[in-house]
Amino acid sequence: MAADSRCRFYLLTPPVIALPSFAEALARALDAADVAAVQLRLKPASDDEIARAAEALRPVVQDRGVAFILNDRPDIAAKTGCDGVHIGAEDPPLAEARRILGADAIIGVTCKTSRHRAMEAAEQGASYVAFGAFFDSATRGVVAEADPEILEWWSQLMEIPCVAIGGITPENCAPLVKSGADFICASAGVWAHPDGPAAGVIAYDRAIQAALAG
Fold first, then answer.
1. What gap in Å lies between CA 13 and CA 47, rounded to an integer?
2. Which residues contact 34 (CB under 8 A, 6 or more apart)?
3. Nearest to 11 by CA among 40, 47, 31, 32
4. What residue spans define the domains of the chain?
5. For labelling, which of 41, 87, 108, 119 has a CA lying 20 to 30 Å from the CA of 73?
6. Residue 131: closest CA among 97, 100, 101, 158
7. In this predicted model, what pLDDT tens digit does every residue of 13-72 receive, in sequence order?
8. 123-173: per-residue pLDDT in tens?
9. Mean pLDDT value across residues 66-85
10. How far apart are CA 30 and CA 164, in angstroms?
11. CB-CB contact of 25 with 59 (8 Å)
């Protein structure tokens, strides 16, 4: 997940999934339009449940040339062959995640609205930083805190990519794309789309492309 000249879509799974039907839905979604990465985020779930889900979904994602990221758990990510991990403030530190996963792994860091945390993450070798929430998010149970200006500040200052997350829909993502987000991350807008997840991914892709063209 390197910085690109264009913004791309980053798909977050629902907190609860049912296999194998979810794997089939995920495959259809990834085949519908451009997706840069999929993050498996199960809350709550046991270690065994997370590992089984990762093992089932990883080939679906990686066989399509999409990065497969696991939330919170670098140990399980390493055991199940994930491309990387996304960590928050309460998760293992970045240095520990890097030790477990190796130099080539993708390691993303939640920074919310903290410029200081983002700078620290960059200095410690993060692959990307994530800012948000930009809008109220039912999926993550948070209210909007971030301003698009933080994306503009980061993109002008750093080469490490930034991810925008939190309540983002195809209808409201344009200011974030135009402010410099390298990736738009969303979940409910895809999985709860009235026409199905494939239509949801297409909607985000079209909205991102329209914002870039505008």
1. 17
2. 8, 9, 205
3. 40
4. 8-213
5. 119
6. 158
7. 999 999 999 999 999 999 999 999 999 999 899 999 999 999 999 999 999 999 999 999
8. 999 999 999 999 986 656 677 789 999 999 999 999 999 999 999 999 999
9. 97
10. 20
11. no
Two structure tokens written together for 25: 């839905």
pLDDT at 66: 98
User: 60-94 as b/e, with b when 16 or more CB fall inside 10 Å?
Assistant: bbeeeebbbbbbbbbbbbbebebbbbbbeeebbeb
- Say if domain 8-213 classifies as CATH 3.20.20.70: yes
Q: DSSP letters along the chain, please?
A: ----SS-EEEEE--SS--TTHHHHHHHHHHHHS---EEEE--SS--HHHHHHHHHHHHHHHHTTT-EEEEES-HHHHHHTT-SEEEE-TTSPPHHHHHHHH-TTSEEEEEEET-HHHHHHHHHTT-SEEEE--SS-BTTTTB-----THHHHHHHHH-SS-EEEESS--TTT-HHHHHTT-SEEEESHHHHT-TT-HHHHHHHHHHHHHHHHH-
CA-to-CA distance for 22 and 3, rounded, in angstroms? Answer: 29
